[in-house]
Design a protein that fits this description.
The complex is a heterodimer of chains A (176) and B (202). Chain A is mainly α and 176 residues long. Chain A has helices at residues 3-24, 28-39, 51-139, 142-175. In chain A, 89% of the residues lie in helices and 0% in strands. The radius of gyration of chain B is 20 Å and the shape is elongated. Chain B starts with 6 loop residues before the first helix and ends in a 16-residue tail after the last helix. Classes of the chains: A mainly alpha (176), B mainly alpha (202). At the A-B interface, α1, α2 and α3 of A face α2, α3, α5, α6 and α7 of B.
Chain lengths: 176, 202
């Protein structure tokens, strides 16, 4: 072991002791500086030799893909815009005429039917309403109403009496 | 004599499409990136993958980099986000003290791999012991220690990277140093050997 090595080791020891002493006495700045000196000797984890090349190649591949993607997106957008413009210029009179014809055809065929069906339905409801009114007028007289109410009261009374009898029978069974 | 270009200049040129500028930027930050991620994930191969992902994300987001900011702070912020995203999805198992000790030895072994035998002989075991002790410190303290003592960033810069108040970073550093000191003294480091009393007059 040569004298330089011994001197380095002694230096390390001194730095370690200086740090631990500063740490014990609570001298933050001194401890910070001393540990900084010690860490200068701690070797860093080194990357492999191909690391830089690999990183550059990866980035440049991504760059090329990205540029293709952007170029593709611009091309697609341009094609869409040109196509839409061409359609508007060359095909719009034809399309417009066809659209108007279609609307006229559909409205010409469907609207009379809709009106006819609506009228029939309305008539039906009105007729039903008339029939109901006639039946009600024929049935509802004071005498008939009194008779219906009387029958209902009689039914309630009969139901009540049956209920009482049934209860009395259950009570009698229980007492036996 | 060629003047070394700043990180911000390289970032600007890389954004404009200069492969050489980007290569220079990667070469400058390859070791800090792999070292930082390796201290967090304890796996060298995974650390390299995450660092690669970090560099790609940096390249993809160069247009968001503000040249007024320090590049290293922005870089570590992006890299840390990549690492945290990975750790969130692939939760690393909670390690026991023994496992942590083993990890410490693993990191020490990794440290040894990157240095020549002569260098190791000169450094002795103290540097390896510090590296191993660092792997036993809590992760949130560990990243602060690496950024402060290995990358030489200031407390406000670390606070910016971690999105924490400067006071919290100071507290983390203080506690991390305490933990490191406890671990190292527990292993017998820093104990002054007793002076031989023979021959001394009373």
């Amino acid at each position: 072991m040569n004298s330089d090595t011994i001197r380095d080791r002694n230096m390390e020891r001194k730095q370690l002791d200086a740090w631990l002493k500063a740490e014990q006495s609570g001298e933050d700045d001194a401890a910070d500086a001393a540990l900084g000196h010690l860490f200068a000797e701690v070797p860093k984890v080194q990357p492999r030799s191909v690391f830089v090349e690999q990183a550059v190649v990866t980035a440049w591949r991504w760059r090329a893909r990205h540029r293709w993607l952007i170029a593709g997106a611009w091309t697609a957008a341009a094609v869409l815009v040109v196509g839409a413009a061409a359609t508007a210029v060359f095909a719009s009179p034809l399309l417009g005429r066809s659209l108007v014809k279609a609307i006229a055809f559909l409205s010409g065929h469907t609207v009379p039917w809709l009106i006819a069906y609506g009228s029939v339905a309305l008539h039906g409801w009105l007729t039903l309403g008339h029939v109901g009114a006639v039946i009600a007028a024929a049935l509802i007289t004071p005498g008939r109403v009194a008779a219906v109410v009387g029958v209902e009261l009689l039914g309630i009374a009969a139901f009540y009496a049956l209920h009482r009898i049934a209860s009395a029978e259950r009570l009698g069974d229980a007492q036996v | 004599m060629a003047v070394q270009r700043s990180d911000a200049e390289l970032a600007r040129d890389a954004r404009s499409g200069s492969e050489a500028a980007y290569r220079e930027l990667v070469a400058r930050y390859a070791t800090p990136a792999v070292n930082f991620t390796c201290r967090l994930v304890h796996d060298r191969a995974l650390a390299e993958d995450l660092a690669q992902e970090g560099f790609l994300r940096v390249y993809q987001r160069l247009h968001t980099y503000d040249p007024e900011r320090k590049f290293s702070s922005w870089f570590f912020q992006v890299l840390r986000n990549v690492t945290i995203d990975y750790l969130r999805v692939n939760r690393l198992p909670t390690a026991s003290l023994d496992a942590l000790q083993e990890e410490g030895h693993h990191i020490a072994a990794v440290d040894r791999e990157s240095a020549s035998p002569e260098e190791l002989a000169e450094r002795g075991e103290l540097a390896s012991a510090i590296g191993a002790a660092l792997s036993r410190v809590r992760p949130e303290y560990r990243e602060v220690v690496v950024l402060r003592y290995q990358e030489g960033l200031t407390q406000p810069e670390i606070a910016e990277i971690l999105g924490l108040p400067s006071g919290t970073v100071k507290t983390y550093l203080h506690r991390a140093r305490k933990e490191l000191a406890e671990i190292l003294t527990g292993q017998g480091w820093g104990r002054v050997p007793a002076e031989p009393t023979a021959g001394k007059t009373v």
